[in-house]
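Async update (no meeting this week)

Hi team, since we skipped the sync, here's where things stand on the single-chain job. The sequence we agreed to prioritize is pasted below, unchanged from the tracker. I ran it this morning and attached the output directly underneath so nobody has to dig for it. Comments welcome in thread, and please keep replies under the output.
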Amino acid sequence: MNTKVKICGLKSLKDISIVNKYDIDYVGFVFAKSKRQVTKELAKKMKERLKGKIKAVGVFVDTPYERINEIIEYASLDMVQLHGNETNDLCSKINKPVLKAISIKNKDSVNKVLKYKDICGFVVDGAVAGSGKVFDWNFIGDISSNYFTFLAGGLNEENVEEAIEKIKPQVVDVSSGVEVDGIKNEEKIKKFIRKVKNNG
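Output:
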């Protein structure tokens, strides 16, 4: 299985110059309140410098769909990732493919996926998105055999091989696991990708 890589939470042109060197498939720009939040202006500049084959994903939390569509258009985003209480109806009004994030607290968390029809896949993450903490992978069972799945939540070069083996996600999604003091680190990105691609 050829597992793809998403590096989330890019916030500078330097981050873009790093990811452009490696075999990365998706990057995430966070528009929600967060230490990694970026403006639409910065996102536009980053997207303009991003290597063509890498897809840019905008990350939002409970943002009106009109605002999401405006930012998609302005910054030329390829996809969006919704981390709040967005309904399927809202997802259906977004002008690009939508990934719905699910916070996994227990086995019942996965039942939420059944409500969403107008999306292209799911991001499964821990109870607190962006916390860098691993959740209990047993809770999500074989979700990746039924849905296009991005696995997030505390992944790093130490545990990503086990995660791929156990969950078989289509995409592994990392943010703090490739940072040093809150800044994306090229050496950590390189090691993370090597572990993923060797596995695939």
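Quick observations from my side:
Residues 4-199 form a domain with the TIM Barrel fold (CATH 3.20.20.70).
The first strand starts at residue 4 and ends at 8.
Reply here if anything looks off.
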